[in-house]
Amino acid sequence: MDFAFDRARHDRQGNRRRDDTWKDDPKLKVLVVGGEHVPTVAGPALRWITRDQAPEGTWLLLGESGGVTHAAVVVDRVAEDLAPTSVRILAPLLNPDELSLAIHAIAMARWLRSHRFCARCGTGLDVAESGHLLTCPECSAHHFPRTDPAVIMLITDERDRALLARNAAWPEDRYSTLAGFVEPGEALEDAVRREVREEVGLPVGEVSYAGSQPWPFPSSLMLGFFGRASSSDIVVDANEIAHARWFTRDELATAIEAEDIILPPPHVSISRWLIDRWAERS
């Protein structure tokens, strides 16, 4: 696969999370994380600091990479002198090993900052297991990191044309694949079919899994699919989708060359990867 966050490159070392002895590692590398921003150096690359240089914050064990223990400190905002940059921007620029660590850190940091109180009783939560568990001192509830599954799909018709759509909030020339969150009690394939019918009014039969991508902005797991529609009559919902149309491979190539449409950038989103895989098929 050829897109950001396509696989983990570091050992998360879950067996080390129940004590803090990893903090005593003299080679420990620490990443400061605020929201989706991380410190950087020219290159670009992540700016790692020592434990002694770390600011006050919530500690998070990331694991081992290259024989070295890596951790993060979650803060409200990364100091300006550390050149904070969004991981969205850094994704296609970082080497895969650093990107793997950054995505783990960002996903966990967003969860830690947004889940401060117990959903059962409202008491403030305590951090446990090196940042990977929140416990309630009042009712003893355990809260684990959440991931929201979402399906993202390239739909084709009987002529093998690809369906691309423009979200109502996007600029007029920006197009991508359809996507939507999986509902409780719903199979992934059924989520694909439901979302396509809701957004563009098309019935979908065959659905095949293609790949996945963690998307920590804030907590999604994008599950990529190809699907085949049994009709080509598009009826957009006019709420989420402003426009949708079918493209042959030649039509898409011509539209891109003429700058009539803009697709997601390559090497970042699984959406573009799905489109490219279809385009490469004869």
TrEMBL record:
SUPFAM superfamilies: Nudix
GO biological process, one term: NAD+ catabolic process
Enzyme Commission code: 3.6.1.22
MF term (GO), any: NADH pyrophosphatase activity
Region of interest called Disordered, as start-end residue ranges on this chain: 1-20
Cofactor: Mg(2+); Zn(2+)
Protein family per UniProt: Belongs to the Nudix hydrolase family. NudC subfamily.
Protein name per its UniProtKB record: NAD(+) diphosphatase
Source organism of this protein record: Aeromicrobium phragmitis
